[in-house]
Amino acid sequence: MMIVTLLLSFLAFSGQASAATWYFLRYYTPSGAKFTSFSGEMVIPALPKAGTYYLWPGLQPTDNSGVYQNVLDGRSGTWWIGSGWCCSNPSLPWGGGFNTYAGDTVTFSNTLKSDNSGWTSTISKSGSTATDTFALASKSFNQVLFAIELTGVSWDFGQLAFKNVRITSTGTDSSWCNSSPENYNGATTYSISGVKASVSGNTVTCTISSVILQKPK
Predict the structure, then answer these.
(1) What is the CATH number of domain 2-162?
(2) What does UniProt give as the signal peptide span (predicted)?
(3) pLDDT at position 17
């Protein structure tokens, strides 16, 4: 069910549908570089009611063929979080997950394997962990997103906060980290703090203390 419904994410990003209301921040690598890891903590907001709330950090490839996400899903009336690729090309099974609640902190980690054979996702909170590997080695991810995707519901859950974010990319150009992210349609009031970039060999490491999607504009 998750893969089918998240088809809306893929279609919206590729310009084929606009059923969802979007709020997101997006970082791009310089041309020729790609992201190799994306991790951090998501602070779980209150869920006002059952509805199509999808809140997620994610990665998108250069061919815009889908989104690799850790999705907080509010459809059941209780938050559930899981990792996966939406939605085809390739078609992959959704990963495992668990319920989570307002005030929890969920750690997420998405990492390209050292042998470049695929990506591994781990999500965890106290007492719960899910780890899955996805056959996405052929994808070159050049976009990192912090996203709110809403269908038939409004932004009524307060702020969405990410903490202790760490992103790595290939190359030696760290300008993407030190620049402000794209704010899609200028729709989101947000704050970012504690940004630091470093370069070692052919790896750029970007750390961000907090990324907070505060409210719609």
Answers:
(1) 2.60.120
(2) 1-19
(3) 46
